[in-house]
Amino acid sequence: MPDSAGKPSNIETRLFINGDFVPSISGQTFDVINPATEQLAASVYEASPEDVDRAVKAAKDAFPAWAALDASKRGDFILKLAEAIEQNLEEIGYLEAVTMGKPYLKPPYNWVGHHTVEGLKFFASLATAVAGETSLNTNGFVNLSFRQPYGVTAAIIPWNGPSFMLCNKIGPSLVAGNTMVLKTSEKSPLSALTIARLCQEIGLPKGVLNILSGFGRPCGEALAKHMDVRKISFTGSVPTGKAIKKAAAESNLKNVTLELGGKSPLVIFDDADLEQAIPAAAVSAVVNSGQGCILSTRLYVHEKIFDRFLDGLKVAMTKIGGEVNDPTMEATSRGPQADKIQFDRIMGYLQYAKDQKLDIVLGGGRAREPGYFIDPTIIVNAPEYSRVMKEEIFGPVVCVNSFKDEEDVIRRSNDSIFGLYASIFTRDISRALRIAMQFEAGSVAINATSPLTAFDMPMGGWKQSGDGREFSRRAWESWMEQKTVYIKL
Ligand code: NAD
What we know:
By secondary structure, the protein is of the alpha/beta class. It folds into two domains: 15-260 and 465-488, Aldehyde Dehydrogenase, Chain A, domain 1 (3-Layer(aba) Sandwich), CATH 3.40.605; 264-454, 3-Layer(aba) Sandwich (Aldehyde Dehydrogenase, Chain A, domain 2). It has 14 helices and 24 strands. β10, α8 and β11 form a beta-alpha-beta unit. α2 (71-87) runs antiparallel to α4 (111-125) and α3 packs antiparallel against α6 (190-201). 53% of the residues are buried. Nicotinamide-adenine-dinucleotide is lined by residues 156-160, 183, 185-186, 215-217, 220-221, 224, 235-237, 240, 243-244, 259-262, 293, 392, 394, 420, 461, 466. InterPro entries: Ald_DH/histidinol_DH, Ald_DH_C, Ald_DH_CS_GLU, Ald_DH_N, Aldehyde_DH_dom. The active site is at 259.
């Protein structure tokens, strides 16, 4: 891919409401800064609560006709959209690179484009799988249950996988017959507007999907509080998840699904295949510059192999994540952090580690300037109670601690407010399954680790990592109401 391939001649910055691009009512814009150059990427129209109102109205008006379509027709639209996205991945990749710094094509970093398209195709295939139940268990009755769409749904997404997150929300909601208003992250609003243009091009009926750029407050909050929104699905941080549940409770008690943060443990036993474990741990540490909810950031390594593993991890993280550059350039394998806020946050954790005199054995600082680049960093044997062990850093920073026995490492792995993902490397399958059962996490990988997921399997968090599940063959379920119908014979 030549440098800057995919750059559109005209970058769309307006809101997408009722099938049209429109400026915000106030005319207000906000600036998105390219994190690799610290230069302006675009000034984008900012949605206000009044814009939320008109987007929700468009979605409400579009709902009856969309819900009345044959499910297979809705699936066809989603499939067409997936194919259109596939044809425009360079443009989408370019816009994500200049807003939140994700490099685009080079493996193993191109999984986002692949996941976006394949995920949407998978959701399209579920359109006709929606089904209720029948029961003859009550004498003299035939009882049925219907699955029906909520109506207007909303989604609020983060910036770390903009198009991927968008497709996770719109796919199951729209095939289920809902319409939607989706708010992108203020850090990465542009690629979603390309997808909005593709919705126009494939002829998606007006108002079925509306896309707003804007901040958590007031735009996201207005969506979470809106009385005409029946369901909201949110991916982002724990504090925002709590704010959204509160807003839903204080308004119309809309249904809420939350996909939140993580601090995922990865346990490596002394019988592990280190040829596999080391590169897997390194990819999980630096992929997407460490900006992933499911990435393994607390590594527990058996004391017998600790030194060997650590030496290997240093080499692998340097090789896989050490070379940073402008993410729009072909050779770039790792980009900057998403913006100055994220950069400062991670640097704050690195300063904390230095202040606490923790043992930083790799990296620990800024990689280059200009741009918000941070070195792959390893902190060794930090106390379990320290902030770097407890809090989500969301950068290319891992903590590696040693352990001796199984019971102790399970207790330490589970000693977290999060429960999104956990991994184990061992050749002992009984031990692997025993521990898989004891991990308090929504996903467990054995002899593998994140970012591994599968579309047809449920994905979500235990404890404060979330509420509800995405993906799976029943991905539509959380986007539908149920109704039981009792028929007296
Ligand atoms: P964030 O919570 O700051 O923001 C997420 C979204 O919520 C943004 O669109 C933001 O504008 C909006 N928002 C902020 N305040 C709001 C409010 N009061 N009301 C409504 N909306 C509001 O999170 P982030 O920094 O964008 O993303 C990083 C976080 O997301 C991390 O914690 C990460 O672990 C998590 N994440 C989770 C998953 C998952 O599937 N579990 C996936 C990716 C990211």
